[in-house]
Specification:
Blueprint (H helix, E strand, L loop, with lengths): L4 E5 L4 H13 L3 E5 L7 H6 L7 E3 L7 E3 L1 H12 L9 H30 L15 H14 L1 H11 L14 H10 L11 H14 L1 H17 L7
Parallel strand pairs: 1-2
Antiparallel strand pairs: 1-3, 3-4
């Protein structure tokens, strides 16, 4: 029986959601530690100097801990030989890796700029959101990021998602599907509706993974719903 994995996580985060889904889908024993309000403490920063979540602890790791959602899923898939979630075929694995790298480098920065202010999350230095720009300018910046996502979203659809409906050309979700579907949960805050293909894609991933997806996703969905403007102040 594998050792219990200690996961430091934040419930409202889609970055954290991906690892929470993965652990459940993989059937690995784990303990979730709510890191809300703790990531800036000396104890946490001694272990995770980035102050980021998700993060796992393991004595087998060179530094005893690891953060970054994709790295965590790759490490645990390799360690436990979870080929269905992270294919070992070089071509299929390259497809999964490339999709994840494209997401974190090209898609998620735009997604964060479009949603983090609305979520009440901290934004990065140098962004419009952290500047002295007026609210109208900040709102325009968020809309511009939504517009800019059309191209990379289309690339995910046409290049990475195969005929079987999942990344990696298999008939089951991979770690890249988990990461992309989780990220799309924040798009419920967009001013425009998410394309039907993307809605269908999230539903397909959720159906394939069942409660492994839906149970932790409820935390994100509940938080997102709480941040949506009401009819009175929309």
């Amino acid at each position: 029986m594998p050792d219990t994995i200690k996961l430091h996580m934040l419930g409202p985060s889609v970055n954290n959601l991906s690892v929470r889904v993965f652990l459940r889908a993989a059937g690995l024993p784990f303990e979730e530690v709510n890191a809300w309000g703790a990531t800036r403490t000396p104890e946490y920063m001694a272990m995770i100097p980035s102050s980021l979540t998700p993060a796992i602890e393991s004595p087998e790791l060179p530094r005893g801990a690891l953060w970054e959602s994709c790295a965590i899923m790759m490490y645990l898939s390799n360690k436990h030989k979870l080929d269905s979630l992270y294919p070992t075929d070089p071509g299929r694995r390259a497809q999964v890796d490339a999709a994840n790298f494209y997401l974190v480098s090209s898609i998620y920065p735009l997604l964060a700029r479009a949603t983090y202010e609305k979520l009440g999350f901290g934004t990065y230095a140098g962004e419009v959101a952290t500047s002295d720009a007026d609210e109208a300018s900040k709102a325009k910046a968020r809309r511009d990021c939504e517009d800019a996502l059309e191209k990379p979203f289309n690339a995910m659809k046409t290049f990475f998602i195969g005929k079987g409906g999942f990344i990696g050309d298999g008939d089951k979700p991979t770690i890249a599907d988990i990461r992309f579907a989780a990220s799309l949960e924040f798009c419920q805050l967009f001013e425009r509706q998410l394309p039907h293909w993307a809605q269908d894609y999230v539903a397909r991933v959720e159906k394939a993974l069942g409660k492994a997806y839906s149970e932790p996703a409820a935390d994100v969905r509940g938080y997102v719903a709480s941040r949506k403007p009401t009819a009175a102040n929309a």
